[in-house]
Design brief:
Blueprint: E1 4-10, H1 18-34, E2 40-46, H2 51-60, H3 65-76, E3 79-87, E4 90-91, H4 93-101, E5 111-118, H5 126-137, E6 141-142, E7 147-150, H6 165-181, H7 197-204
Parallel strand pairs: 1-2, 1-3, 3-5, 5-6, 5-7
Antiparallel strand pairs: 3-4
Helix pairs in contact: 1-6, 2-4
Domain NADPH-dependent FMN reductase-like: 5-154
Organism: Sphaerisporangium melleum
Keywords: Flavoprotein, FMN, Oxidoreductase
Length: 206
């Protein structure tokens, strides 16, 4: 059976990074939901290693070999996990710069799990007002559960409404795995049928 390709994007800047840690936990949880029924190939893309290449691409319009390889991996992925630190109530500039150089059609119909890290839970809504609209604009299929991890979430049990971090990770990973399992491995995005405007007008006439 052809393995499904799961790609995680980590926009963490520090080393070690809580953003990378969250990406790894989401990736492992998604793999646990899919295997052994569906084999999975996992790749984690560290954007901090591509920061200069991304900046050069924005200026010149040409990706370096390393950046081109990362963009190809995102395009060919059967499922995507996107994790960014939250700065000033939104995703990081590095994360947005990478998304800006991804082809506009690369994420069409692709299952995406969005996640973020931050120092305080007050920034958790950035997932809904910033990240979810971004991927909706790119026509991705964003799973219902977004995962935010504040400093106090690591090792906590959460509350009755949201559950602990481990519970949220498991729920989001299950949703992503369910979408990925329904796709044939390496499936290209579905092409939308374009109906000429004249034909649409003719259909409205009595």
């Amino acid at each position: 059976m052809t393995p499904l390709k799961l790609v995680a994007i980590s926009a963490g800047l520090s080393l070690p990074s809580s953003t990378r840690l969250l990406a790894d936990r989401l990736t492992q949880a998604t793999r646990d939901h899919l295997e052994p029924g569906r084999p999975v190939e996992v790749r984690v893309i560290e954007l901090r290693d591509l920061a200069v290449d991304i900046a050069n691409n924005l200026v010149t319009g040409f990706p370096s070999p390393a950046l081109a390889d990362a963009l190809r991996a995102v395009t060919e992925a059967d499922g995507l996990i996107a994790v960014t630190p939250i700065f000033t109530a939104s995703y990081s500039g590095l994360f947005k710069s990478f998304v800006d150089v991804v082809d506009n059609d690369a994420l069409t119909g692709k299952p995406v799990l969005i996640a973020a890290t931050g120092g305080t839970a007050r920034h958790s809504l950035a997932l809904e007002h910033a990240m979810r609209p971004l991927f909706a604009y790119l026509r991705a299929i964003v799973v219902p559960t977004a995962v935010y991890a504040a400093a106090e979430d690591w090792g906590s049990t959460g509350d009755a409404r949201t559950g602990g971090l481990a519970e949220r990770i498991g729920r989001a990973a299950g949703e992503l795995a369910g979408l990925m399992a329904g796709r044939p491995a390496g499936a290209p995005p579905a092409e939308e049928e374009v109906i000429p405007f004249e034909q649409q007008l003719a259909a409205l006439r009595p």
